[in-house]
Amino acid sequence: MKNKGIAFILSLMVFVSISCTKYEDGPVITFRSKVVRLEGTWKYESKIYVEQNLVVTENLPQTLYTYSKDGTYSESTGNNGTWRFSGSVDLMIKDSNQVDVSWEIIKLANKQLWLRKDKVEYHYIPG
């Protein structure tokens, strides 16, 4: 009976931790804040056209995106602006022309950043 109780508690803990994941693809558990995970320079790993089930990994733009703790961002193309989190899963970027662009964060890990916009996923790795 004692073993069943322990198994039930462990199962409940796993279920709660999985169901409480903020981002669609994780991570399930992290000890780093989302600001710390986003901070740094990112480059394209792949681009996924969800409705066509098409994954592109070659001939991607060579643009590097740098996010700083102070809320500024820059691109290797010379564009820059500010960023902020909006709600629990949105990343808002305001470019130098003061245009706001909203991205849905689907994964924000130490070495993976996955964003979605208009049914296209953009996967980034540290650059």
Characterization of this structure:
The chain is an alpha+beta fold and about 130 residues long. It has a single domain (about 30-125), classed as Lipocalin (Beta Barrel), CATH 2.40.128.280. It has 2 helices and 9 strands; from the N terminus they run ααβββββββββ. The chain has an 8-stranded antiparallel barrel. Strand 3 and strand 4 (about 70-75) form a beta hairpin. The longest helix has 18 residues, at about 1-20. The chain is globular and about 65 Å long.
List keywords for this structure.
127 residues; alpha+beta; Lipocalin; eight-stranded antiparallel beta barrel; 2 helices; 9 strands; globular
Architecture blueprint of SSEs:
Elements: H1 2-19, H2 34-38, E1 40-49, E2 54-56, E3 64-67, E4 72-75, E5 80-86, E6 90-95, E7 100-109, E8 112-117, E9 120-126
Antiparallel strand pairs: 1-2, 1-3, 1-9, 3-4, 4-5, 5-6, 6-7, 7-8, 8-9
> DSSP strand (E) fraction?
35-45%
What is the rounded distance between the termini?
Answer: 53 Å
CATH topology: Lipocalin
Low-confidence stretches: 15-20
Question: What's the CATH first level?
Answer: Mainly Beta
Please count the helical segments: 2
Kindly report the spatial arrangement of strands forming the biggest sheet. 1-3-4-5-6-7-8-9
Let me know the number of strands. 9
The domain count comes to 1
Radius of gyration: 18 Å
Shape: globular
